[in-house]
Design brief:
single chain; 81 residues; alpha+beta; Alpha-Beta Plaits; two-stranded antiparallel sheet; two-stranded antiparallel ribbon; 4 strands
Length: 81
């Protein structure tokens, strides 16, 4: 399942550089996560790094992009290939 940044985002800029897949970018009002690039850090780290560094806990699982751990790993393999 990809992640999503909710409206509580304070644009603190700490999540973007932590993403190993460059899935996070500045949106019109808050940061956004590209679900095609988000692997929840599978293949890179044990836990999503953006969630680890977010000071306001505004990053959630994206119910519109449900993926298994295997799906996320396969996406990771395609991204690094």
């Amino acid at each position: 399942m990809a992640l999503i940044i909710n409206e509580e985002c304070i644009n603190c800029d700490v999540c973007e550089p932590e993403c190993p897949n460059a899935a996070i970018s500045q949106g019109a009002d808050i940061y956004i996560i590209d679900p095609d690039l988000c692997t929840e850090c599978v293949g890179h780290h044990g836990v999503p790094q953006c969630m680890e560094v977010c000071p306001v806990d505004c990053i959630d699982k994206d119910a519109k992009h449900v993926e298994s751990q295997e799906d996320l790993y396969q996406k990771y393999l395609k991204l690094i290939g």
